[in-house]
Known about the structure:
CATH topology of the largest domain in chain B: Heat Shock Protein 90
CATH class of the largest domain in chain B: Alpha Beta
Strand order of the largest sheet of chain A: 2-3-1-4-5-6
Number of strands of chain B: 12
Shape of chain B: elongated
Helix content of chain B: 40-55%
Order of helices and strands of chain B: HEEHHEEEHHHEHEEHEEHEEH
Number of helices of chain B: 10
Shape of chain A: globular
CATH architecture of chain A: 3-Layer(aba) Sandwich
Distance between the termini of chain B: 94 Å
Largest interface: A-B, 42 and 48 residues
Strand content of chain A: 25-35%
CATH superfamily of the largest domain in chain B: Histidine kinase-like ATPase, C-terminal domain
Number of strands of chain A: 6
Structural class of chain A: alpha/beta
Helix content of chain A: 25-40%
CATH superfamily of chain A: P-loop containing nucleotide triphosphate hydrolases
CATH topology of chain A: Rossmann fold
Largest sheet of chain A: 6 strands, mixed
Radius of gyration of chain B: 38 Å
CATH architecture of the largest domain in chain B: 2-Layer Sandwich
Strand order of the largest sheet of chain B: 2-1-5-4-3
Order of helices and strands of chain A: EHEEEHHEHEH
Oligomer: heterodimer
Structural class of chain B: alpha+beta
Largest sheet of chain B: 5 strands, antiparallel
Amino acid sequence: xxxxxxxxxxxxxxxxxxxxxxxxxxxxxxxxxxxxxxxxxxxxxxxxxxxxxxxxxxxxxxxxxxxxxxxxxxxxxxxxxxxxxxxxxxxxxxxxxxxxxxxxxxxxxxxxxxxxxxxxxxxxxxxxxxxxxxxxxxxxxxxxxxxxxxxxxxxxxxxxxxxxxx
Amino acid sequence: xxxxxxxxxxxxxxxxxxxxxxxxxxxxxxxxxxxxxxxxxxxxxxxxxxxxxxxxxxxxxxxxxxxxxxxxxxxxxxxxxxxxxxxxxxxxxxxxxxxxxxxxxxxxxxxxxxxxxxxxxxxxxxxxxxxxxxxxxxxxxxxxxxxxxxxxxxxxxxxxxxxxxxxxxxxxxxxxxxxxxxxxxxxxxxxxxxxxxxxxxxxxxxxxxxxxxxxxxxxxxxxxxxxxxxxxxxxxxxxxxxxxxxxxxxxxxxxxxxxxxxxxxxxxxxxxxxxxxxxxxxxxxxxxxxxxxxxxxxxxxxxxxxxxxxxxxxxxxxxxxxxxxxxxxxxxxxxxxxxxxxxxxxxxxxxxxxxxxxxxxxxxxxxxxxxxxxxxxxxxxxxxxxxx
Lengths: 166, 388
């Protein structure tokens, strides 16, 4: 029997780049045309933590589900959540702490990270870190276009999962 | 006889089921008690390896092994995972509905895999367009707010240009006329004096333009967040500002370490303290720079024992190029310091107000609310067409 795979949820509002992140992660590609996710897309990915493989099943969720996501079977037995916001759309960043709180309520103790995405479209400094960091989650400034920090975000999530389940 | 009839009646059903399975509308997977695939049926589940663990191919069930095992001997329980697309290294499935049930007759877990009905191209396109519109609408709202603010900036800028810069320009023109007349009359000494006045007027206009540039860019500058010790920042500012020897500046309160827009905070504090020094009418005095840390913001006050600001002037002091012509007021003041502070603060969701009971009592206190929440700062920042 193969090693157990950990379920990792990608959450966040519509159009923040969740699918682009997972496509960059798993296939190392970026598609310029926007194809909204309907339901969920499920991928297998192998991260590493302390030189050990950590198999993950990444659930790329439909941003349109909103709060319904937290009542859905999709979230069952998730080990971690990566919550994505679009650095160019303030409302998507503002919603991240609330999504994290809802995830933590449903699955207490699981790892939660924030991915502030589309940094390739932003030439200023990050203005979000301090507020997002208040809850103690890991924060990554990512770009699915360039691949910046995408793998690192999942590697750190893998470490957090291993620490929790050890 | 009855069994034979029943088989005949079932024949079309079996035939139809086979057709649907062969055309990829659904598939069935038999799962043993080790949660390995013991058999499969239908093209839709062709990607599932017989003998391998179910979750190797049906990824959505990974992590739900315990839920699958609780189905055993419960024929009426169903584990539904609707509307999933499974990506493999080289391929992807159509969007699928998965339903796991227990079959009492076969003593096995069955997973029914069917095509999700929403997968028509038309429906996908409709969804795409709805979402694109939602995103566009959110952007329009954000841009409208920006535009409103930019228009306000533009109006104010036009007002400053027409009102405050027009007068010195007119004065410059009159001086040029005077110089012309004096030269024609051969009064060289007086003409030189007039040229000197023109030079001073031109320098004053140049200073005003520089101040104006500082004002319009106050809301755009200093984007960088930094981890700073605000106590060190305020101490540095106080030490760097020139003042009469008898002017004492006290730093009060517990100034915290925080992550904030350091350069903008420097700009605000520097202008307020400098304002308190330069508008004091005596060589001796006491200025207090104090802070109270609240949950959402720092409440900063800069209080002096100077002449004070009468109530009728307390609104005008925050307008560009307005300075009080009170006795002892600093003649070199551009009248932009408080305007720049007010503009910088409003751009990050902060605020400033003034308290003074002049001429009844001396002294002025400026109170600044500096937000600690960074996104509140961002919300109020915008790109102004005046920023250049």
